[in-house]
Design a protein that fits this description.
The structure is a single chain. By secondary structure, this protein is α+β, with helices and mostly antiparallel strands. Among the domains are: about 80 residues, FAD/NAD(P)-binding domain (3-Layer(bba) Sandwich); about 40 residues, no CATH class. The chain has 6 helices and 5 strands, in the order ααβαββββααα. About 15% of the residues are buried.
Length: about 180
Amino acid sequence: MIGAGGIGFDVAEYLAHSGESPAVNPALWRTEWGVDDPAKSTGGVAFDGPQPHASAREIYLLQRKAQKLGKGLGKTTGWIHRATLKMKGVHMMGGINYEQISDAGLHISVGEDQKDAKILAVDNIVICAGQTSQRGLAGALTAMGKAHHVIGGADVAAELDAKRAINQGSKLAAEI
C-alpha cells in the first residue's frame, strides 16, 4: 500500500481482516485485544493476552515521509490503528522511495540517498496517496454568480482531516 495516512490505515485494516470483523462482534474483539470479564480475570486482562487472528494477506504499508507512520491520525484513536496493524503483522515502512513497478513487484529504496534498494514481491499495489482538491463545480458556480462555499477535502485535499472538515462545516452552518 502506497500512502499511510488515514485512508491507507483504514484500507490496510480492511485488507488484513477476513471473516467477521471484531469491530462488530464483542466476543471476537475481546479475544483479539486480550480483554476478559473483570470478575474472572484481574483487571479484566485475559490470562492468554491478546489473540489476534493472522492477517488474511501479507501487507506492506509504505509512506514517503521519514516519520512515524500514522503520525497524523487522531490523537485518541491513532494508537489503536497502529497497534491493530502491528498485531496483524503488517510491515510499516517510512522514508520510502517508489522507484519502479515491474513484473517482479514494487522496487523501493530508503531515504534521500536511496539506500537499501529492494523489490517487494507483491501481487497488488493499492495507492492511497495523492489527493487533489476538485474545485470544478466551485469555478462554474463563481462564473454563474452563484453563492457557494468550499470546505473539507474540496478546500484542501492533501492530508485529509475529518476533524478540520467537520469544524469548517459547523462554522459555516453557524454563519449561514
